[in-house]
Design brief:
This protein has 318 residues and is of the alpha/beta class. It has 2 domains: 122 residues, Rossmann fold, CATH 3.40.50; 144 residues, no CATH class. 43% of the residues lie in helices and 8% in strands.
Length: 318
């Protein structure tokens, strides 16, 4: 290894996948594998070259200086925030991870998982997830310092579709693996990938793994709820250039869009003008609606019902 390697992921961006890949690579090339969270108190002693340091949430706290070392190369992995939400909600509903089953102060000591499962509809479960765990994940993705010369910024979507492993070979070369190590790296990547040797059967961390799940799962009302909470996330992370994706989504849900927009108008919630302007032209393709685009209301984070739903608005898909 020419460099020590740091792998930084976020929840539901391929963390378990990359953990398996790099743990096997480290063992094969004789590098020490260090888990940031579990070995946090011993990192100074543990980080003896050559090492592979794995951080599951990309928050390096008191050890952020590691990312700027001349002998370190970093792989940072993100995923479409909409798919992060979908994956997280389904995973948190069924996972046996300890934190999901610990009583949460402020929730009458009810656990996160029980609170999530208690939501009356899938829409409300997504809203609950957006306002809690996934909100933190997306904020961490947005706060990451992009543009470091020693960091390869990778996307889950590109890796998931890298069946020829050309993208992975590019990553391996960037991380400083020599030719023999790159062959090892490619073999381990294939063995731990769903399109390779990894089976979905019995894998508690894999529900689908597909890219662009949001195109099947998102309804117009859920899209508005997402945009009201994270209005610039998709553009900041370069997954969208504007808000027109919600219009494309609406073309497959035209009746639902009409129902949703009428509810939004009736709700008399404050305008979300930036979104209104970006959608003004494409929305003319929809049914004739009596509403003013300059005062277009949008589903925002507002009063929450006791069950986590948004008061006064319902999803026609439910």
């Amino acid at each position: 290894m020419k460099y020590n390697v740091v792998v930084a992921t976020h929840h539901k961006t391929g963390t378990v996948w990359m953990d398996g890949v790099f743990k096997a690579i480290a063992d094969d090339v004789g590098a020490k594998y260090v888990d940031f969270k579990s070995q946090y108190g011993q990192l100074t002693q543990a980080l003896q070259p050559p090492f592979v340091l794995f951080n599951h949430d990309s928050n390096f706290r008191d050890y952020s200086h590691i990312l700027t070392r001349d002998d370190v190369r970093v792989l940072h992995l993100i995923r479409d925030p909409r798919d992060v939400l979908i994956s997280a909600m389904h995973y948190h509903k069924k996972s046996s991870e300890g934190w999901l089953h610990d009583p949460v102060p402020g929730y009458d000591n009810v656990t996160y998982q029980r609170r999530l499962k208690a939501q009356a509809t899938k829409f409300r479960r997504y809203v609950f997830e957006m306002d809690h765990s996934t909100s933190g994940t997306l904020q961490d993705m947005l706060k990451w310092q992009y543009g470091r010369a020693n960091c390869f910024e990778a996307r889950y979507e590109d890796l998931r579709q890298d069946t020829q492993m050309s993208y992975w070979r590019e990553i391996s070369a960037f991380l400083g693996f020599d030719e023999a190590e790159q062959q090892i790296s490619s073999r381990r990547f294939w063995q731990n990938s769903l399109f390779g040797g990894l089976s979905r059967l019995g894998n508690k961390h894999v529900r689908s793994g597909d890219v662009e799940q949001w195109k099947r799962e998102f309804t117009p009302i859920l899209a508005f709820a997402f945009l009201s909470r994270f209005p610039s996330a998709l553009q900041s992370l370069a997954y969208e250039t504007d808000h027109r994706w919600i219009v494309e989504l609406g073309r497959t849900h035209s009746d639902k869009v009409t129902s949703v927009l009428r509810q939004l108008v009736a709700s008399r919630w404050e305008p979300f003008k930036e979104l209104g302007r970006s959608l003004s032209a494409p929305l003319k393709q929809y049914r004739e609606l009596d509403w003013r685009l300059e005062c277009q209301p949008v589903l925002r984070r507002g009063p929450m019902a006791d069950d986590g739903g948004i008061m006064g608005i319902s999803d026609p898909a439910e």
